[in-house]
Request: fold
Amino acid sequence: MSPGRPPAERNAPGLYPTTGSYPTEVFPRAGAGVPTTGSDLPTVSGVSTASDSPTVTGLSVTAEHPTVSCSPTESGSAASGLPTAAEWERLEQGVMQRVRTFEAFLTDVYGGTEDARVLTDGVLPRRLVTTSERFRREAVGIAQPVRVAVASVDVVRDEHGTFRVVADDLCCPAWPAHVAPHLLRALRTVARTAARMADPAVTQAIDRISDRATDPVVVALTPSDSALARQPGVAAVAGRDLVCRDNVVYHRDRRVDVLYRTVADDLIDPLHFQPDSVHGLSGVLNAARTGAVVLANAVGNGLGEDPLIHSFAPRLIEYYLGENPILPTVNPESFHTTQFLPIMPNEQDFPQLSTDSSTVDNSSISGLRLFAVNDGTDVTVLSDGVWTSDLSTSNIPQQNSAVDTKVLW
Reply:
């Protein structure tokens, strides 16, 4: 299982893997995991061998795929699925663009649904937002300096070699260990921004506001063995370890400035959501509303993951940023008939491909999972090793669930 694979159940607290080695390089080292003997070797011509490990010089190898051809001398190609240097720069810019767009969209919607610009301007039909099962009315009016502190973006190559976005996880993405230092720096930056934005009339009960601006307290509502909890100064807590009094969150004798959570929206606050939840903290949503604590990621971010709203991503990019989309989104209408090129763990692996194996039909696909850490000013893009074989396709409607969006306008 990929270290960055999201939790299997959205309504359960996210769990991070605790064993195995986490990748520290964006791309694999040349030659890593390349077979040298046995039946895994590709069939080639013009090779002189003196032992079981043949020496290949200036050789071009072609995989048996109707649209794929690659050379082992290339550093990343459409055939192997690995991005070249130019493609990585495009991926990085595309992920940053999407994170900024969803940040603006969610801030717009939850600032007040009736007054959301995206709805009053007719960019999205109001009913599409208000009837979504991922829309949280309880979070409307909660202003936060950053709503999407960390996100994951799944991309695949289509039959033309173009990277396309399959899914954006904006709520509680699971990420590998090497993301933790970047996330902690972002959370502390967000806390300082929140301290500068705080209204003294609202936060007058917080007598440590100056300390909050210089040395914010970050806790992780997550398993104790999570990567973030291993960072200096961060405590891993459960719901029972926290208390909310006078709209201020406390962990033992410390006020909490940022609460990073892997608990689903429906479980985070028994006062507003499921009353029998033992994973969250009663009153934490009210504390976030007053600005006394920052929730990362913000409650209600799942709205951006709704399959229908996700299909409007290109329009949202143009509306909020005034830019053309850098990374196209997978077209839901052609998703089940489009061929996707598998992304290999190393560009020198050449499996025997067939047309059937690259056609998506309610099965897992392979591609890249990228992570974005957002501090409100800069977005840092990281990769989960190189590939994952089970990308999230929850944002793509099933083949028999075509939706006519015309009725929503």
Observations:
- Residues 179-296 form a domain with the Rossmann fold fold (CATH 3.40.50.11290).
- The first helix runs from residue 85 to 110.
- The two ends are 41 Å apart (CA to CA).
- The chain has two domains: 84-173+302-409, 179-296.
